[in-house]
Design goal:
The chain is of the alpha/beta class. The protein contains twelve helices and ten strands. Pyridoxal-5'-phosphate (PLP) binds next to α1, β7 and α7. InterPro entries: ACCD_DCysDesulf, TrpB-like_PALP, TrpB-like_PALP_sf.
Length: about 300
């Protein structure tokens, strides 16, 4: 087990905020996917030769699964809907980095079938069940529980050591897996720590459905705030808050954090009681493939910035 990621104090629009720096965990297993895939790295999986996943060809999941497969000597098959001709191929991005690690990225060969359906109804049936390991999108499965509970323990230990009471942990959600398992851990341990999240993909109802896929026990669910959100299309105020953080020396990723930071700001502006910790979930590798588009679209916002 690597040592706990650090927690830094941060001045967030006049509010004091703690930031849990999972972005500083050692590469290539830093950030959210490093936590969720920790048991895939550590456990023994006798006979497994192929790891199967799906999602976006630019995703953090693709890169993290590729790194994991390469470390374990497995072949990664990663299914996608579509690969844009203009996809960013540099090795410092998720896609190019995954190819360099030996991943096979496959466009679903049947028309009108999603990657998930293709894997579950066709591909897995062609394979020897013991030789492959299938990870649903974004690690939305019980395999993620242990790694996220480790994160929960780090936060609880830190709060106890510092005497931080009534802690609120905030993080933006995609599948909601991380927020759910964190909240579950704090409930199981009877910690005075509450998990608050916002939906970045879809709306609050979608997020509750995701929680329900992982746990039937609704009293452990995280608190959900914020409105439905357009994934992967940053609005001006989202890019502004991302740039403001970068000017303060903290770089965030561009899919989840801008939305999360804006929702957190409006929460704290309305009522800043208690102690708040924002979970920095890494994923900066994806930024190189997204920044050029935003730089063109919002050129004036970037003028004040050097890089
Ligand atoms: C995958 C990811 C998320 C979303 O995590 P969920 O557990 O799916 O909610 C958030 N932030 C980053 C940086 C990610 O890579």
């Amino acid at each position: 087990m690597p040592s706990p990621s650090p927690v830094d104090p941060f001045s967030f629009f006049g509010h004091s905020l703690w930031i849990k720096r999972d972005d500083l965990l050692p590469e290539p297993f830093s950030g959210n996917k490093g936590r969720k895939f920790a048991s895939l790295l550590a456990d023994s999986f006798d006979g497994v030769q192929t790891l199967i996943g799906y999602g976006s060809p630019q995703s953090n999941s693709l890169y993290s699964l590729a790194a994991l497969a390469s470390r374990r000597g497995w072949q990664l098959e990663f299914y996608v809907d579509h690969i844009a001709a203009s996809i960013y191929r540099g090795e410092e991005g998720n896609y190019g980095g995954a190819l360099a690690l030996g991943a096979t990225v496959i466009t679903v060969p049947e028309p009108n079938i999603s990657p998930r359906e293709y894997i579950e109804s066709i591909r897995l049936k062609q394979m020897d069940a013991d030789a492959c390991l299938y990870v649903p999108e974004g690690g939305r499965c019980a395999l993620a529980r242990r790694g996220v509970h480790t994160l929960g323990r780090e936060i609880a230990d830190w709060a106890a050591a510092r005497g931080v009471a009534h802690l609120n942990v905030f993080l933006p959600s995609g599948t909601g897996t991380t927020a759910l398992y964190l909240s579950e851990y704090f409930h199981q341990q009877h910690c005075d720590i509450r998990v608050v999240t916002c939906p970045v993909v879809g709306d609050g109802d979608y997020l509750f459905d995701q929680f329900a896929e992982l746990s039937a026990d609704s009293h452990i669910y995280p608190e959900v705030v914020g409105d439905a959100h357009h994934y992967a299309k940053l609005k001006r105020d989202e890019l502004e808050i991302w740039l403001a953080m970068r000017r303060q020396g903290l770089e965030f990723e561009l899919l989840y954090d801008p939305c999360g930071l804006l929702v957190l700001k409006s929460l704290l502006d309305a009522n800043a009681e208690g102690n708040w910790l924002y979970l920095h979930q890494g994923g900066l590798r994806g930024n190189v493939s997204m920044l050029p588009r935003y730089r063109r679209k919002f050129a004036q916002l970037f003028e004040r910035d050097v890089a």
